[in-house]
Write a structure and sequence with these properties.
The chain has 470 residues and is an alpha+beta fold. It has 4 domains: 101 residues, Uridine Diphospho-n-acetylenolpyruvylglucosamine Reductase, domain 2 (2-Layer Sandwich), CATH 3.30.43; 117 residues, Uridine Diphospho-n-acetylenolpyruvylglucosamine Reductase, domain 3, CATH 3.30.465; 107 residues, Alpha-Beta Plaits (2-Layer Sandwich), CATH 3.30.70.3450; 100 residues, Alpha-Beta Plaits (2-Layer Sandwich), CATH 3.30.70. It contains 18 helices and 18 strands. Helix 15 runs antiparallel to helix 16. The chain starts with a helix and ends in a 13-residue tail after the last helix.
Length: 470
C-alpha cells in the first residue's frame, strides 16, 4: 500500500537499509519490533476515509529513553517516523504515506503523578481518557476534554483535540501545561515546568500541541484537572425548525449562560441515532445540553435555557440528572459516527469539521445542509455548536470513484465556506493529509512560516512526513 517495501520492492539497497534498521531496533527492543503484515495493516489506517498506507516496521517502546534511542536509529537510516496512539484520528495522521517506522506508544500508559492540590496530572502518552478519569474518581477531580473516542492523551495533545466539553473547559491547547518531547535528532526536551503560567521564553508547549507529530514525539505530559461539579444535569430539546435549534445555541452563549456542553444534531442524525441505538428521540433538529455547578446554579441555568429554547420554538425540555441517564444520552451522541455508518451497506464515512465565529454559525450550517440535500450522497450533521464547531458525516462507497469525488467536493466546499466566513477548515480534527491545500487557502504565507519551523526542527523531514505540508 503506502510503505517503502511495497512501493520499491526492486530497490535492494532500500530493503537492506530497512532490514539493517530492524536488526538495530531489535537489539534494543527485542520482540517489541514487528514487520508482520497484520501488525503493519493495523498501524496503517485510522478511523477516517483515507486509503491505508502501511509502515515498514512497527515498534513498541516503553520509555522516553527508548523512544530517543529509536529515533536516533531512524534518523541515521533516514527513514520516516510516525507516532501511533489509539488510531482514532480522522485526517490520516497515522498513515505511513512515505513508509517508515510506526512508534506505537500505547504501552506507555503510566499515570506518573496526580497532584490534587495543584489540580494537575502527569502521565505518559498512551494513557487513555477513560483510564485517567477512572483513576481520578476517588480524588474528586476529573479531566474534561472529551472528543468522543477513547483516545490517548498523547494523541489528543498532538491533534489539539477538544470535543463536547470545550465550551466550558477549553481544548487540549488550554489544558496541557508541559510536555516531554523527543526531537527529530533524539534530543529529549521539556517544554515547560508545572507552574500554572509562565513567561519564560517561547511557548514551546503550544508549538508542540497540535503539531500532529511533525515536530517531535510526546512521551510525557502534564495536564490540568478540575473539581467534579456538585451538580450535573443534562437536557434534550427538540425543535420544529433547524434554525430554532441553532439560534437557541447562539443565544445561550451570547447571554453568558455557563453551559458545559451544547450539542446540535440535525433531523437526519436523530433518525440515524434512533435506528442505531434503539432510542426514541424526536427526529427533529435537537440540542443536547449539560449544566455543571452548584444545585442552585444548575437549577437557574436549566430554567433560563428553557426560556431561551421556548422563544425559538423549542419543545418541552427533557432533563436527566441520574448518572446512568446522562451517560446513556451522551453515549448516543458519541455514537454519531457509527450511527451514520450503519445507514449504508459497506460504505465508509467521510467525517469532516469546520468552525466559524458563532455569529455566522446559522448561515454556515444552513448552506451546508442545503448543499448536502442537493447531493446524491447521504449525510448527517452534528456539532459542538457552542463554540461554532460542527461536523458533516458523508456516506461514501470507497470503491466508487464518483462517490469519492462527490464527497470530497462537498467536504472542500464546506471548508471553503467556513474560511469565507472568517472561520477555519478544521476546528478539532487537524490537517493530516486531508486538508493540506485548505490550510494554505486559510492561512496563506503563515504556512511558509510553519514550514520554516519544521525545517529547523526536523531538517531531514522524517517526523510524520506528508502531514500538514505537501
Amino acid at each position: 500500500m503506502g510503505n517503502l517495501l511495497d512501493k520499491k520492492t526492486g530497490d535492494a539497497s532500500l530493503q537492506d537499509q530497512i532490514s539493517a534498521l530492524e536488526q538495530n531496533l531489535r537489539s534494543l527492543l527485542g520482540d517489541r519490533v514487528s514487520s508482520g503484515t497484520n501488525i503493519r495493516e493495523q498501524h496503517g489506517r485510522d478511523e477516517g476515509y483515507h486509503a491505508p498506507c502501511l509502515p515498514d516496521l512497527v515498534i513498541f517502546p516503553k520509555s522516553t529513553e527508548e523512544v530517543s534511542a529509536c529515533i536516533k536509529m531512524c534518523a541515521a537510516a533516514n527513514l520516516p517516523i510516525i507516532a501511533w496512539g489509539a488510531g482514532t484520528s480522522l485526517e490520516g495522521h497515522v498513515l505511513a504515506v512515505k513508509g517508515g517506522v510506526s512508534f506505537d506508544l500505547s504501552g506507555m500508559d503510566t499515570i506518573v503523578k496526580v497532584s490534587a492540590q495543584d489540580l494537575t496530572a502527569t502521565l505518559e502518552p498512551g494513557v487513555r481518557r477513560v483510564q485517567l478519569n477512572t483513576h481520578l474518581r476517588d480524588t474528586g477531580l476529573f479531566f474534561p476534554i472529551d472528543p468522543g473516542a477513547d483516545a490517548t492523551l498523547g494523541g489528543m495533545a498532538s491533534t489539539r483535540a477538544s470535543g463536547t466539553n470545550a465550551i466550558k473547559y477549553g481544548t487540549m491547547k488550554n489544558n496541557v501545561i508541559s510536555c516531554t518531547v523527543v526531537m527529530a535528532d533524539g534530543r529529549i526536551i521539556r517544554t515547560a515546568r508545572s507552574a500554572s503560567k509562565s513567561s519564560a521564553g517561547y511557548d514551546l508547549t503550544s508549538l508542540i500541541v497540535g503539531s500532529e507529530g511533525t515536530l517531535g514525539l510526546i512521551t510525557e505530559l502534564t495536564v490540568r484537572l478540575y473539581p467534579i461539579p456538585e451538580k450535573i444535569a443534562a437536557a434534550v430539546c427538540s425543535f420544529a425548525t433547524f434554525q430554532g435549534a441553532v439560534e437557541t445555541a447562539i443565544a445561550t452563549i451570547q447571554m453568558g449562560l455557563g453551559v458545559a456542553r451544547i450539542e446540535f444534531m440535525d433531523d437526519h442524525m436523530m433518525s440515524a441515532l434512533n435506528t442505531f441505538s434503539g432510542t426514541d428521540f424526536s427526529e427533529q433538529s435537537t440540542l443536547f445540553v449539560e449544566f455543571h455547578g452548584s444545585e442552585i446554579v444548575v437549577k437557574e441555568q436549566v430554567s433560563l435555557f428553557e426560556e431561551i429554547s421556548a422563544s425559538f420554538g423549542g419543545e418541552e425540555l427533557k432533563t436527566a440528572v441520574v448518572t446512568e441517564e446522562r451517560e446513556a444520552l451522551w453515549k448516543a451522541r458519541h455514537n454519531a459516527l457509527y450511527a451514520t455508518k450503519a445507514l449504508g451497506k459497506g460504505q465508509e464515512v467521510l467525517l469532516t469539521d469546520v468552525c466559524v465565529p458563532i455569529s455566522r454559525l446559522a448561515e454556515c450550517i444552513l448552506e451546508t445542509r442545503e448543499e448536502l440535500d442537493a447531493s446524491s450522497l447521504v449525510a448527517t450533521i452534528a456539532g459542538h455548536v457552542g463554540d461554532g464547531n460542527f461536523h458533516a458525516f458523508i456516506l461514501v462507497d470507497p470503491e466508487s470513484p464518483e462517490q469519492i469525488e462527490e464527497a470530497e467536493r462537498l467536504h472542500e466546499s464546506m471548508a471553503r465556506r467556513a474560511i469565507s466566513l472568517d472561520g477555519t477548515c478544521t476546528g478539532e480534527h487537524g490537517i493530516g493529509v486531508g486538508k493540506r491545500e485548505l490550510l494554505v487557502e486559510e492561512l496563506g504565507e503563515a504556512v511558509d512560516v510553519m514550514a520554516a519551523v519544521k525545517a529547523v526542527l526536523d531538517p531531514k523531514h522524517i517526523l510524520n512526513p506528508g502531514k500538514i505540508f505537501n
